[in-house]
Amino acid sequence: APAGGAAPGGALVPAAPAPAARRRGRKAAAPAVPDVAGRAKDGGGPPIPLPDGLLRGLGARVTRGLKSTALEHVNWALLFGGIDKFLHVYHRHPIRPLRALALSMAERWMIIRQEADGCFGGIQPPTVYSIIALRVLGYPLDHPILTTALRSLDDYSVIRPDGSRMQEACQSPVWDTCLATIALADAGLTRDDPALVKAADWMLSQEVTERRGDWSVPIPDVPVGGWAFEFENDTYPDVDDSAEVMLALMRVNHPKPEKVMAATYRGLQWVFGMQSADGGWGAFDINNFGQLVYKIPFADFGMLTDPPSADVTAHVVELLGELGLADDPRTKRGVEWLLHSQEADGSWYGRWGVNHIYGTGGVVPALRAAGLPASHPAIQRAADWLVSRQNPDGGWGEDCYSYNDMSTAGVGVSTASQTAWALLALIAADRVGEGEKGAAAARGAAWLASTQTPEGTWDEDHFTGTGFAGYFYINYNLYRLVWPVMALGRYHRALQGESH
């Protein structure tokens, strides 16, 4: 069938057949790339324009425009209950042409978002649900869309020693690689070390350069750019990975510096375009802080929107500071956002890591990179909070329950990654050196040194990564290694009077 056209039997096909997957780091040749409205760049398939104002009606602009008192007085259960009853009746007696059009649009929306390896959204759950939906629509299992989708699930499979098979929810190769690169560089590897150059080459190969994803709906004029979290997810690059990748590339003396500079320029323009109106950055979207969707009765899975967060904003601000853009108005707005989002106790909330230790460990180095002195009250309040939360053994820990109970923020069994985050903040706050000033950092570094395994890593059974707070947490296998190496490297250099 032609790109984006109808297959025999009426089923749609992708804009182009998805080729073999990128396997463990080798990126497959991408299919003809559709834009977010559904028109393939090779001209195949009609566009599916979104109705004017649709996103505004569901998102932040309309919600923020309504007076909060009016929203509070709406009987949401009654309203959505009535809508639900109407839809049940309509489902039994639909307007058939309208129903057919709706199903066709939903079907096409899914298939044009299939990635080169056959997955949807770069992770396992949406791939599974897309397979189910397409089967319900009548796609046979031997249809190319489903065969490649099913094959992509093998990449999320882990075969255990007892022969059982476990399906991972997602994989994080880009995130792991940029953090490992930063850690190795901060620990003393030379900038032209072959390992760092090889990592930089791989990260450069993962840049999103063609596909316009859903992020572009409210900002169609922003050029394509950035990096995604996974092997294949060009539709959904994210700001967090993009910032950390560029921070990693800055630490490498690449034999082709013009290649790195070009990628950094494109990535920077994309990140600038993703800054929300309030000055902060979310991970995947701009200005995605509406509350209306949370009023739906079955909206019971926590985070349904992607508002700016302290950790993502901090990583961008740190990048801009290290690039020498501390005086740029966009950097200053990000700094102001961070200062205004500090908690009353001096910590920062962690959206993508558990929790206040992660947020604080990211924000303090960012503020310093942006030019704030270590003596700044916000920085010293954060350092004081960390010192107050240090465990008797010298480490730091925080339980996932802190997302439910603020009083438990910074409280938990010591872990390698969380101790490293606290240490990174204390180093940036100039809490290093002789006497009481550097006592907490010294004890934290000593805890990391004493708990290192003979193989050179750390044991960490606790989940310190966050997917959806209160519902879904992540145990990153490399967190127990990259963060301690990064922190100890910076600590050693701080003792020597150097900055990273």
Automatic annotation (TrEMBL):
<feature type="domain" description="Squalene cyclase C-terminal">
    <location>
        <begin position="172"/>
        <end position="492"/>
    </location>
</feature>
<feature type="region of interest" description="Disordered">
    <location>
        <begin position="1"/>
        <end position="49"/>
    </location>
</feature>
<dbReference type="InterPro" id="IPR018333">
    <property type="entry name" value="Squalene_cyclase"/>
</dbReference>
<comment type="similarity">
    <text>Belongs to the terpene cyclase/mutase family.</text>
</comment>
<dbReference type="GO" id="GO:0005811">
    <property type="term" value="C:lipid droplet"/>
</dbReference>
<dbReference type="Pfam" id="PF13249">
    <property type="entry name" value="SQHop_cyclase_N"/>
</dbReference>
<keyword id="KW-0413">Isomerase</keyword>
<dbReference type="InterPro" id="IPR006400">
    <property type="entry name" value="Hopene-cyclase"/>
</dbReference>
<protein>
    <submittedName>
        <fullName>Squalene--hopene cyclase</fullName>
        <ecNumber>5.4.99.17</ecNumber>
    </submittedName>
</protein>
<dbReference type="InterPro" id="IPR032697">
    <property type="entry name" value="SQ_cyclase_N"/>
</dbReference>
<keyword id="KW-0677">Repeat</keyword>
<dbReference type="InterPro" id="IPR008930">
    <property type="entry name" value="Terpenoid_cyclase/PrenylTrfase"/>
</dbReference>
<feature type="compositionally biased region" description="Low complexity">
    <location>
        <begin position="1"/>
        <end position="20"/>
    </location>
</feature>
<dbReference type="GO" id="GO:0016104">
    <property type="term" value="P:triterpenoid biosynthetic process"/>
</dbReference>
<dbReference type="GO" id="GO:0051007">
    <property type="term" value="F:squalene-hopene cyclase activity"/>
</dbReference>
<feature type="domain" description="Squalene cyclase N-terminal">
    <location>
        <begin position="72"/>
        <end position="159"/>
    </location>
</feature>
<dbReference type="InterPro" id="IPR032696">
    <property type="entry name" value="SQ_cyclase_C"/>
</dbReference>
<comment type="pathway">
    <text>Secondary metabolite biosynthesis; hopanoid biosynthesis.</text>
</comment>
<dbReference type="Pfam" id="PF13243">
    <property type="entry name" value="SQHop_cyclase_C"/>
</dbReference>
